[in-house]
Amino acid sequence: MLALVHASTAAVALSATQHVLSVVSGLAVGFTLGLIGGGGSILAVPLLLYLVGYPNPHVVIGTTALAVSANAYINLIPHARAGNVRWRDGVVFALVGAVAAFGGSTLGKAVDGKRLLFLFAILMLVIAALMLRPRKPAHAQDVLAEHAARGKTLKLVAAAALVGLLSGFFGIGGGFLIVPGLVLSTGMSMIAAIGTSLFSVGTFGLTTALNYARSGLLDWTVAGLYIGGGVIGGWVGSRMATHLGRSGKGTLNVIFAALVAAVALYMLYRNLAAF
């Protein structure tokens, strides 16, 4: 209750135009989450700051974390129905990562992370390059998956802890890291990693949002507008992802890598002054 009171005092009265822009931003966030399992918060934060014009960066992080969390859980439903979710891997990743996300978000509320954002953007460029590497033949992937299965849990735990920490610190859902993390640690397909990642994205985002709400750094009205737009965008994105993922032409890998690289370059530009 105390968090709700604080949140109401931190909220900003928006114009009708800003309300509409919030819904449009939610559409973009939901579509991105449904299509590639990531990019929700990376898009949500700058959209709310620069397109909608919300003045408080910390409230923006808390609010978008809640909106992305809800949209991720909603987008998880059509992916689960299509058989794109590996529940065991998703639950392990989410539980371990959520603990790390709480620690990361606690640190993020008190630290200026511009330099780390710059370095994080470089990491994103590396990830984009890795995702564009030619895929190994199917039989080779099966062999690698069998070997990886023996130590898969340890790899999942390590990857989840790192991704969760970064997710909480930067106030992002972490899909950009969760998807390649699942692919590299378990050998699952790209479409399975996208579907599975949404469970972790939702859990990480909810953990971060609750931590920010405790400090009154969450605008419930804007979060609701984002979620409303995200439901429609996510439905379209998830259907497109399932279609592209079954085409077998690596289209999702290219889309994922291109968006990661574009956002990374923008982050480098925005945070260059930190050095």
Q: How is this structure best described in words?
A:
The chain has one domain (2-274). The chain is mainly alpha-helical and 275 residues long. The termini are far apart. It has helices at 2-10, 16-36, 40-51, 57-81, 87-108, 114-131, 138-150, 152-170, 175-186, 190-214, 220-245, 251-271. It contains twelve helices and no strands. Helices cover 81% and strands 0% of the residues.
Write the layout of secondary structure elements.
Layout: H1 2-10, H2 16-36, H3 40-51, H4 57-81, H5 87-108, H6 114-131, H7 138-150, H8 152-170, H9 175-186, H10 190-214, H11 220-245, H12 251-271
Instruction: Kindly report how far apart the N and C termini lie.
Output: 41 Å
User: Which shape, going by the Cα principal axes?
Assistant: globular
Number of strands: 0
Indicate the proportion of strand residues. Answer: under 5%
Range of helix content? over 70%
Q: Helices and strands: which structural class? A: mainly alpha
Rounded average pLDDT: 79
User: How would a textbook summarize the main sheet?
Assistant: none
Low-confidence stretches: 1-9, 137-148
Individual helix count: 12
Query: Which H/E pattern describes the elements?
Result: HHHHHHHHHHHH
Radius of gyration: 18 Å
Give the number of domains: 1
